[in-house]
Each structure stands twice: as structure tokens, then as C-alpha cells.
């Protein structure tokens, strides 16, 4: 079956309709079938069509003005050879359920193709996931590494439900030791039950900086500096130089506590927080705070997902936006 190139489009005559009817290739037109560059590459690669003057290598060069093309081809080929019908758009690809095709079924995945070195803008990801969700599909990233291996990630927006309200601890008085806050609190004040801080002895608890800030904001911890009371903003000013990520961590910590989750430091796992739901023994989530406009390279996200998977936790990135905090989950999947 012979095709031709016109204005960077690959066209087949009416005989091409069979490719669409049988396997979902291309888009039918009045006088034949229009193929996307990646579809044409695949069909030439498999010897199912011919384009005079081009073999696979020269056709790949012809379409390589798109620096994305080799990655797109590799992902397209991989998904096709897993038994799925694939069409281009509205992101990079839409993938139909196995055994289904255009006009006779519905798509299951919307796929975005990335390099391991691409920067992830969480605002962009959030908008794409919302679009996919509105279409009742699953949003998938197909990440091609520098050795051209492909890893698939499902990306979801996680709406954390509010948990059962637990009582606040009773007010306590603290002292400042450098940037650390130590409160006087025996067991009756409820700080142990609410999982704040680390007990120094039966009478004292040492608070993490984000915990101290939050408790000061709630009016539960008071620190006297001479005749004045240290304000939460004043405390943050004192400690901000020691933690450049303080503001975004406090914003996410505050939000999680408002929902009745228990965030504790995630340092041992290489992230901002490990998060407990209620009074469960083991944390269920790792959470990384992402400031407005912040980006992360995909290979960094990959490390985070692998770490979370190895310790049987969900990996959430808490994006701080004008409308509030949005939790985005990344998880490896097999198509």
C-alpha cells in the first residue's frame, strides 16, 4: 500500500480505509486516509505501507524537526505492540481499551510523552489531569529515559477527605533554645495523644519547627521573650534562614493538620513529610511541598515514586496554588 507526503501530512488513497477499519490507524477523509507522522513511521517500520523515496530511516529524519519524534515513535510502538489501538491527541496519544477502536469503543488512557530530563510544571500537570478526568480517562506519563527505556506513570489528583476531628491539646508554655521550641507538657495536656513533638522527659516535649509554628498559630503554645510574647511571624523570622523551604512546608503542614492528618518529618525517606491517617501505626503517604511556579525534573520525581513504592506508601506532591493546595499522586503502572 503506497502513501504520499503533502505538507508534512502522510496520505493514503481510499485503499487506506482498511487500516482504519481493521486497526484504527489514521483519520478518514473523503478521498482516503490521513496518517500522523508517528503512525506513518510505525506502518513503514512494519512494512505495511510504502512512501516512494523514503525508507524508515530517511522518514524519521524527515520528521525530526520535531525533537520529540523518536520518543513519540518508541512509545507509540510499545503501546501498539501491547495490543492497544492508539490515536494522536488530545495530549500526545489517546489509547483505547484492549479490543476496542475508534467508532467501536472508548479510549481508556490519555498519554503524555516525556524525557527523563523534562521539567515538570505542576500547574500544567494539574490542568492536564483535570482535563483527562473530565473526559473520564486515566492520565498517564510515558517517560523515555536516556537509554530509551519506557516507564509509565499514572497521575491523579488526590482529594484527601477530612478525618474524624480529634481534640486539640491544652495550652502549654514553651521556651526557645536557639530555633528549637521546648514546651512544658505532662501527659494530661494531650500532646502525646495528638502526636506533636518528641518527648524529652516526663515534663518536656521538643517540637519540630513546623509543629511549633502551627501550635503558636492556634494559640496553643506561648513563648515569652522578656515581657513580650513571641508571635508566629516573629518565630518564623528567627528560623527562616535555617530552613529556606520553611514557608511552603508550613503551608502544607497547616493544611494537613486542618484535615486531621498527622504529618511528621519525612527526612528518612528524603521528603518533607510522612503522613499518618488517624492513629494508624504506619504512615501511608510521603508528601513533598511544591511552591507556586516550582518545577522538578522528571528523574527526581522518579526517585520519589520508587522510594515511596519501596516502603509501601503513596507519593503525593502538594502543589501550592492561588486556589489552595492540590495533592498530585504519581504511581508507576504497567499498561
Automatic annotation (TrEMBL):
**What's one Pfam family here?**
tRNA_int_endo
Which residue numbers delimit the tRNA intron endonuclease catalytic domain? 70-152, 247-324
**Keyword line:** Lyase
Answer whether the UniProt record assigns the keyword Lyase to this protein. yes
CDD domains named among the record's database cross-references: tRNA-intron_lyase_C (cd22363)
* GO CC aspect terms: cytoplasm
Domain of life of the native organism? Archaea
Q: Does the keyword Lyase apply?
A: yes
Q: What is one Gene Ontology biological process annotated in the Swiss-Prot or TrEMBL record?
A: tRNA splicing, via endonucleolytic cleavage and ligation
**Domain tRNA intron endonuclease N-terminal stretches:** 1-53, 174-234
Q: List the GO molecular function terms.
A: nucleic acid binding; tRNA-intron lyase activity
Enzyme nomenclature, EC number: 4.6.1.16
Family annotation (NCBIfam families): endA, PRK09300.1-4
Q: What is this protein called?
A: tRNA-intron lyase
Taxonomy, top ranks, is: Archaea, Methanobacteriati, Methanobacteriota, Stenosarchaea group, Methanomicrobia
Amino acid at each position: 500500500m503506497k502513501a504520499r507526503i503533502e505538507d508534512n501530512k502522510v496520505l493514503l488513497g481510499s485503499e487506506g480505509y482498511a487500516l482504519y477499519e481493521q486497526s484504527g490507524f489514521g483519520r478518514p477523509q473523503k478521498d482516503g486516509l490521513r496518517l500522523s507522522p508517528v503512525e506513518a513511521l510505525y506502518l513503514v517500520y512494519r512494512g505495511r505501507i510504502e512512501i516512494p523515496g523514503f525508507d524508515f530511516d530517511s522518514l524519521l529524519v524527515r520528521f525530526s524537526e520535531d525533537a520529540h519524534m523518536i520518543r513519540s515513535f518508541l512509545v507509540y510502538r510499545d503501546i501498539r505492540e501491547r495490543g492497544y489501538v492508539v490515536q494522536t491527541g488530545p495530549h500526545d496519544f489517546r489509547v483505547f481499551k484492549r479490543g476496542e477502536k475508534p467508532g467501536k469503543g472508548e479510549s481508556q488512557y490519555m498519554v503524555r510523552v516525556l524525557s527523563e530530563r523534562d521539567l515538570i510544571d505542576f500547574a500544567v500537570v494539574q490542568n492536564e489531569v483535570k482535563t483527562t478526568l473530565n473526559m473520564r480517562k486515566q492520565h498517564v506519563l510515558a517517560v523515555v529515559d536516556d537509554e530509551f527505556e519506557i516507564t509509565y506513570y499514572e497521575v491523579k489528583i488526590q482529594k484527601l477527605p477530612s478525618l474524624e476531628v480529634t481534640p486539640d491539646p491544652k495550652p502549654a508554655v514553651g521556651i526557645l533554645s536557639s530555633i528549637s521550641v521546648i514546651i512544658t507538657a505532662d501527659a494530661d495536656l494531650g500532646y502525646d495523644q495528638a502526636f506533636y513533638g518528641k518527648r524529652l522527659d516526663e515534663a518536656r516535649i521538643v517540637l519540630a519547627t513546623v509543629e511549633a509554628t502551627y501550635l503558636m498559630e492556634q494559640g496553643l503554645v506561648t513563648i515569652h521573650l522578656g515581657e513580650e510574647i513571641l508571635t508566629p511571624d516573629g518565630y518564623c523570622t528567627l528560623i527562616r534562614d535555617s530552613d529556606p523551604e520553611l514557608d511552603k512546608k508550613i503551608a502544607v503542614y497547616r493544611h494537613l493538620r486542618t484535615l486531621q492528618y498527622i504529618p511528621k518529618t519525612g527526612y528518612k525517606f528524603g521528603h518533607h513529610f510522612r503522613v499518618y491517617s488517624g492513629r494508624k501505626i504506619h504512615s501511608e503517604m510521603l508528601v513533598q511541598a511544591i511552591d507556586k511556579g516550582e518545577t522538578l525534573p522528571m528523574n527526581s520525581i522518579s526517585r520519589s515514586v520508587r522510594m515511596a513504592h519501596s516502603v509501601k506508601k503513596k507519593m503525593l506532591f502538594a502543589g501550592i496554588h492561588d486556589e489552595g493546595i492540590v495533592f498530585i499522586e504519581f504511581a508507576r503502572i504497567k499498561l
